[in-house]
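Hey team,

Filing this mostly as a record. A colleague (T.K.) asked me to run one chain through the structure pipeline before their review meeting, and I want the input and output archived in the tracker in case anyone asks later how it was produced. No errors, nothing strange. Just documentation.

Input sequence:
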Amino acid sequence: MVENMKTEEAAKILQVEPSTLEQWRWQGKGPKFIKMNRAVRYRREDLQSFIDARVFSSTTEAQAAA
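Output structure:
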């Protein structure tokens, strides 16, 4: 079974505040999430994909991706 995490747990993994994840959801720029009625959950693999997409070799490369 896939592990689904609440916003608070996902925020700890990403080392951000839960409110940051909430803002990212509204802005459409955070990790993928699951919406079940009013509940929001995150899958560990989606958090890892979000992290992996932000690995760069230089600041120039990071700026070009932004």
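Quick notes for T.K.: Strands lie at 4-5, 34-36, 39-43. The CA atoms of residues 8 and 64 lie 31 Å apart.
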